[in-house]
From TrEMBL:
Domain of life from the UniProt record: Bacteria
Pfam families from the UniProt entry: ACT_AHAS_ss, HAD
MF (Gene Ontology): L-phosphoserine phosphatase activity; magnesium ion binding
Top-level EC class as recorded in UniProt: hydrolase
Biological process terms in GO annotation: L-serine biosynthetic process
Catalytic activity: O-phospho-L-serine + H2O = L-serine + phosphate; O-phospho-D-serine + H2O = D-serine + phosphate
InterPro entries: ACT-like_dom_sf (IPR045865), ACT_dom (IPR002912), AHAS_small-like_ACT (IPR054480), HAD-like_SerB (IPR050582), HAD-like_sf (IPR036412), HAD_sf (IPR023214)
Native organism taxonomy: Bacteria, Pseudomonadati, Bacteroidota, Sphingobacteriia, Sphingobacteriales
Organism: Sphingobacterium alimentarium
GO-annotated cellular components: cytoplasm
Phosphoprotein is among the record's keywords: no
Protein name according to UniProt: phosphoserine phosphatase
Co-factor(s): Mg(2+)
Length: 431
């Protein structure tokens, strides 16, 4: 049986609610703009939380819009820039699943089709409402015979379509959860990249902070190697909001604490510390998933650099205590996670890497002993791997080899690289 993917549009495929944005455009310059917009937004939220019927919400919003076809063109241009980041980077998924990746929305085809079609989503697989216009091109209503204009419309539509296969639903609102409630879909994934509604997430089979997470959980090919929302970034002590916001906006799972709590030791992947915070060697020795540590101050005397090096943990710190380093340090941490860069590290060789355009990037951190590079390249040769580019630098006791290769290789290659003697850490990057 085929797998089908039923994807919502507003606040899921796009970052925003399209009718709310259309209201902003059509009401621009009106003295009642903010008042009317707030009322439209209120209708949207009430329906998304299941507090009023979808039809009541739709009719209320349409009556307030005062929009025409020229406003729709502006809206389309705006929405194309507001596609959710995790959907945008996974265009290849839609091309490969053109027959089974569907958009099902209470929104309107007039703006949905132009936004999603460039991603390879077929027009016949886009199910949504349609507007009614008067002779001057103003929106005066909608086709109320369309099941998607009514309460429980997505359920009615799927019953009519009678899809033979496993159906997975992805959305942010109550109407998306109704599909799960009806028993028509295999699993419901509450999409929270743009907005999280407790009334929806509490009932979901899985909360997915990004489309990458959905693909990862369902073992589907993804544009990135590992969902960033699964990388725990622990922030401890007096850390400026700007530093926290940089890492939050990058998509990492953020926890802000006054102290390095024991329960996070085994799972922390990134650690950003305020000035004066100390981490014991015993804590560091058990932080096996920790990849990078940032310190807003001089790390010396507060965290063991030698132990971090021994465990392959890349340190970025604020030795000169410049005010700009509250932004610099978290950005360097993110660049290491995202691209493998170690420039300005306190304990690693300084590598500035090109932005990877294709293939996979393999990061091999090892003890600085003779012969490692030869062993790595012998494994590539034995597996007939085409090396696109390769970088090697050493510093003291640490060696760092970064190799970009074609993405077609047997998984046994990774196991062989990890088993090289004196290997400390190994990661795969692709995006």
């Amino acid at each position: 049986m085929k797998n089908y993917y039923i994807i919502d549009f507003d606040s899921t495929f796009t970052q925003v609610e399209a009718l709310d944005e259309l209201a902003r455009i059509s009401l621009e310059g009106s003295p009642d703009q903010e008042k009317v917009y707030k009322e439209i937004e209120r209708y949207t939220n009430l329906a998304m939380e299941g507090k009023i019927s979808f039809r009541e919400s739709l009719a209320g919003r349409i009556s307030l819009l005062k929009a025409n076809k020229s406003h729709l063109q502006k809206l389309i241009k705006h929405l194309k820039k507001k596609v959710s980041k995790s959907f945008d980077r996974n265009r290849e998924f839609f091309k490969q699943n053109a027959d089974t990746a569907w958009i099902v929305s209470g929104g309107f085809k007039e703006f949905i089709i132009p936004v999603v079609s460039p991603y390879g989503i077929l027009e016949e697989n886009i199910y949504a409402n349609t507007f009614k216009f008067d002779e001057q091109g103003y929106i005066i209503g909608y086709d109320d015979t369309n099941p998607l204009s009514d309460e429980g419309g997505k359920v009615k539509l799927l019953k009519d379509l009678n899809i033979q296969g496993k159906i997975y639903g992805i959305g942010d609102g109550y109407s998306d959860f109704q599909l799960k409630e009806s028993g028509l879909i295999e699993k419901f994934f509450a999409f929270t990249e743009n907005i999280s509604r407790k009334s929806v997430t509490d009932k979901a089979d899985h909360v997915t902070p990004s489309f990458d997470e959905f693909l990862y959980v369902n073992q589907l090919p993804s544009a990135i190697s590992y969902p960033k929302n699964r990388i725990l970034c622990l922030i401890v002590g007096d850390v400026p909001e700007i530093a926290i916001d940089i890492l939050k906006r990058d998509g990492f799972s953020i926890r802000v604490k006054d102290t390095f709590e024991e329960k996070y030791t085994s799972d922390v992947g990134m650690l950003l510390l305020g000035k004066g915070v100390k981490v014991t060697n015993e804590q560091l020795s058990r932080a096996d998933k920790l990849k990078t540590l940032g310190y807003l101050g001089d790390v010396k005397g507060n965290v063991s650099r030698s132990l971090c090096t021994e465990k392959g943990i890349v340190i970025f710190d604020d030795k000169k205590e410049k005010s700009t380093n509250s932004e610099f340090v978290p950005r360097r941490m993110a660049e290491f996670i995202n691209n493998g860069d170690t420039d300005q590290s306190r304990n690693f060789p300084h590598l500035i890497l090109p932005k990877k355009l294709k293939g996979h990037r393999l990061l091999h951190i090892h003890k600085n002993v003779p012969g490692i590079l030869a062993r790595i390249n012998n494994i590539y040769a034995d597996n007939q791997i085409n090396i696109l580019s390769q970088f090697l630098m050493t510093r003291g006791d640490i060696g760092y080899v970064v190799t970009d290769i074609d993405s077609n290789y047997d998984k046994s290659l990774i196991k062989q690289l990890k088993q090289i003697e004196n290997t400390i850490k190994f990661r795969i990057l692709y995006k």
